[in-house]
Amino acid sequence: MKKGRVFSGARPTGRQHIGNYLGAIQNYVALQDDYECVYCVVDLHALTTLTHTEELKSNTLEMVLDWLAAGMDPEKSIIFVQSQVPQVTELHTILSMVTPMGWLTRLPTFKERVRMQPDNVNYGLLGYPVLMAADITLYKADTVPVGEDQAPHLEFTREIVRRFNHHFGPTLVEPRIKLTAFPRVMGLDGVNKMSKSLGNHIELASPPEEMEQRVMTMVTDPQRRYRSDPGRPEVCNVFTFHGFFSPEQVQEIERDCRKAEIGCVDCKRTLARNLSARLAPFRERRAELGSDPKLVWDILADGASRATAIAEGTMAEVKARVGLP
Ligand code: TRP
Questions:
Q1: pLDDT < 70 regions, the chain
Q2: Which residue lies with its CA nearest to atom 15 of ligand 1?
Q3: Atom of ligand 1 nearest to the CA of 131
């Protein structure tokens, strides 16, 4: 017996990095055994922030390749592209009628976007959380695994659901947030969150040589200037990574770093080796899947048709409740 239904979405950002993996993908994979999972590439949401959309398709493919290679499994879960189940736009419109404008303009995520893209403050951007509420409620998900940054959107979704159900009778499911337990994964610079736009990331799919090159640029304890200076693992991002990828060696590394018995260069080489080894099966599966992109699009089409079956049921109920013929 499954514990409930999970829905989560991610914008198609192309090849995924280690931060995406530790923060989201790993969790998506784990949830598949306990929940009925619906995982969505939210390409319509991506349109709210993009002015150039020519890479949308390839970014979708690259991201889904990473998802599948990492163990998100179309046999266990529904994996699909948002725009291929257009009922979501219909529900978005209906939900927009019970959404007070003030709730949208007040959201911190909207205000931040306005600051970030003052020349492209479009109507869709304002409605972003309504579309997200439509995503979640269309599939009657009760559990939404997301990072803390999405908490205001989840709270918004819950409020919309309560409002809709209050107006029209109990129809939609109020979802709960399932905060991802992982700490923020810092980038190679050690100070900013790992992100593609900052270029401080390591792609999951990068070949071992490239991975090593990137790891060697990682910032370590800034107070350790000479090889003979003792290091402080607690402030070192490389050490944090060892925690994830070198579980057997992490104690020894900590001891040797504190006693200056290991230098940062060797420490990073060890990390690069472990990281590469850990991702070897991933790279293999990805290369195999990547050789036949048609297969990936077929998986997504199958996901869309399974998602459509759920969506049609919800829309029939919603329309009846609202009084649409
Ligand atoms: N807003 C989410 C983000 O930027 C993506 C998203 C869209 C989403 N719809 C969703 C996440 C539904 C969870 C559930 O990360």
A1: 183
A2: 10
A3: 9
